[in-house]
Structure of NAD-dependent epimerase/dehydratase family protein:
Amino acid sequence: MEQKKTALVIGATGGIGGEVARALQAGGWAVRALHREPGRARASNPALEWVAGDALDAASVVRAAAGVEVVVHGANPPGYRNWKGLALPMLESSIAAAAAGGARLLLPGTVYNYGPDVGAVVDEAAPQRPTTRKGAIRVAMEDRLREAGVKTLIVRAGDFFGPRTGNSWLAQGMLPTPGPVKRVFNPARAGVGHAWAYLPDLAATMVRLLAREGALDRVEVFHFGGHWVDDNRAFAEAIRRAAGRPRAPIYPFPWPVVHALAPFNETLREMREMIYLWRRPLRLADTKLRGFLGTVPETPLDQALRATLEGLGRR
């Protein structure tokens, strides 16, 4: 009987980390999850093997990663807070863990690497000239992985949404009021498209890539196309349909309020930095991914949004 492969997930109580952990389990992996308080975290997914550790404590991450084939770096500073002080130090712990056991490090990437000048459609080789602090940190994280020499898999995707995402543009920006959907806010300019990534599809794609370890280069980067809408109003309208409120009003996002309050609030300041992604299209070309896998998990948009709203308690 073939022994299960084992993965360590850092950030398994978060949106992307938790979804990758579930997808790994569904793919037959044994999954270990790191948390400062594993007893408390166990309720989020009792099927995982929860171990004590801190993403900022390299020694505890190395111990937790003993014997694993993959380290999933799904840790993110909550609410955009203190990215500069936390993101790279947490990544260093994951690098140490992957290096210690020869594991592959999986990093969920973003579109933040790309600045406003990159063009409307970008592939994995497009130049990365970010103009935001968070974008610069994302580029620095990827550069550090290449310098470290560990086996690396980076999968870049658009804005996350899904039934278990709390910190997301959909949940906090487009549907900021709790309870059933009464109104929808559209952050984009009229006619501007946007890239969205349904987390269960993205996680399943990552697990399919990991299953082909023998075909991966030492450092591999893929773009996940996800759900592209040519006009983000179409995404807002799909939210209304999924909520069963097809006539709910769609309002422009209150960017003037964000601009006014950003100097006093770190989360709003970070949101303001990313405004260019709502003012011009930036689509991730996934030709390489489709050529490598053949097919990619693609849940229909309305179905994905229904599951998302149900998971968030918004239907």
Notes: The two ends are 45 Å apart (CA to CA). The longest strand covers residues 104-110. Residues 158 and 195 are 5 Å apart (CA to CA). DSSP finds twelve helices and 14 strands in the chain.
